[in-house]
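Table 4 source record.
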Amino acid sequence: MSELFDAVDALLASRAALPPPAERKRLRAAHGLTIDEVAGALKVRRATVSGWEAGKTEPRPPERDAYARLLDKLAELYPAEAAAPVQDAAVAATFTAAPPAEAQLPSTETFSEAADGTAAESTRTPAPGAAAPTAPRPTRSTTPSSSTSRCPGAEEVAPAGTGAGESDPRFENGPLAVVDVEDGQVVAYCVGGLVLDVPARSIPALVDWTLREAKLGAPKLSGPGKDADPLLVLTEAACRRYGLPAVLTEEERLAGRLPEGHKAIKQLHRAEWKLTKRGLGPWARIYRPATGSERACVQLCIPSWQALDTRHWDTAGQLPPAELARVLGVYASRVMTPRGSTAVNGLELMTALHPPTRATAPDESGKRTSEHNPGSLGKNAIDPMGWPPCEVPDGHPVLKELPRFHVRGPAEKLFEEAYDWARPMTDAECSLRHLVGIDVNMAFAAGANGLNVGLGEATYVEAPGFDPKLPGSWLVDLSHVDLSTVKVGKDKWAELDGSLLPSPFTPKGDRPTGPAWYATPTVAYAVELGYEVAPVEAWIRYDNGRYLDGWYNRLRDAFLATMADLGVSADLSPAGFLAAMDGYKSRDPELAIVVSAVKATVKGGLGKLRERPRGEGWRPGESWRALSRPTWRPDIRAAVISRTRINLHRKIVKHAAFTGQYPIAVLSDCVVYAADGGSPLDFLPYREGKPLPGGFKLGVNPGLVKHEGTQSVLWGEEVRERFNAPELNLARYIKDGTVTDVDNGE
């Protein structure tokens, strides 16, 4: 008889009453449960639970009874009559979680500092140690028209800035998808947990499906710009399914692509698809020539081919598909859809925000034509032979007539680089206990903010009067600037120990010995310190503008929004900020990867402005591929580095004038001081929570500083003695104290 009863119970369970799909989702969200948690409890895939909540599928026994029991219990806790205010609050959170860019600016005090340049979900279970971000995480339910949809709706981090297709139905499934193979079925993991079934059986069919059905892509970042092409990230399993190697051979890796005779490339050619010059490699672009305004292009990213550099993307390439889609999706929504390395993305972001051309107003016949977009770098590169000789790297065509082994000195070459300076400790400093390193957040981004840079070619001028508003390169003697007596404010001078300070005019901190080429911010700082300057000659750019402002704003907002998700917000007290920074990466390792990638986008993008030859049989004096880009602009790179170094020196001088403390080492954006205590608060002069005006200030905003690391003074003396290097740059090792060999400046 008991068996009969069990059978009856099973029949009843198979018809267990379930609330409507929207109510299922409400009840789960009301209790703070994630889709992964429900899926784990019921021992089903997260895609299955998403399908139940979207009404695409219905649960079957034995999961149906357990699911009904869960929903019944949740309904008791969160009755339907209380749903309205809860939903209203959820809607409010969704709209306040991602404020417009202008609403995410730092406080008035912080922003004014930055402006003037002085501070300028998972396939199975969540990643180990991962925690929900501190910022609100709105839920987006997407129901694509394609019948291949498997699990719409999931939780995601609120985007900053332009959303990834949130308001554009063409891109309703987000900017990208990670393509994988599960149980023999090809699936595409999209942003927000959406999973699509992929019917394509070949690479050409996959490209067709992406453009016709997947609804992937992102809206343009600027009015005259172009929409971002959809990005497909192929896992190793997907590579094998589509006839691609899971990993490249050593020969293919060095070439950066598959050989032209590969089967997949032949398939693309037969289907009349083209590849760019970089071929089918870790990052590939598959396209057909544009017809009118219609673009047909799909990007590929293949992590197992080392597309995601571990120096910048950490372990992203080893993440499961859903987690990888989340990481790349957050980066895409806050920065841009990745198109290559972080350096490539940094450069592409500049162009996306300042497209080279725009459409004219319609003429009498209603026809529009293309014209130069004001404020951009234009569509044509500067003629290699039109470059100022002082601004180009060795081997450039304009230097072809120089003797082969000629070494250019400061009077021939603009050498604006980041600091690498150190000095021996004084007796007084050796009596202290700690060496404390502080690091400037997003220093080079802050250096770019509000910076006036040249937009076109330079004009040569002899004996020019210096104008700090004109970007360019100036040959001027600054050896007379004495750091022992400097101006630190209007009509206010300070007496300092110049021997304990690096020179602001050279990367190594040495005092200049004669005329040298400098970018405008460096010469302007000499004037600011109270000294006259008399340039001998200059290359000046009269066509100029604040080209990098939008670039800075986009990257700043991405950085601040992601750090806020990790629990580090811009409104914390100094002590609160230091506490929040302690272990922030472990709160959500995936978002920590995004932070790393954003910072690498800044540095890499600026470095790409002076890209050097990359093999390809190049010889000194010959042109190379990068010179054909309008964005090959070493003068802009030099100006940003110059301003970044000057910003740091200004803070060092303000700090020394007020406290009598001098840095022991400076490396790029890290400064080391000796102190009695091990915290930055033990030597930074805060008064009632307020920092020294113009000095170092703790905080997350670009241009402010964080704690880099603390070691003992004994450690510093011991490693310098061990390597017989009294001026070993301790800033290079202050973070973890590990010194394996004497640094060589690389």
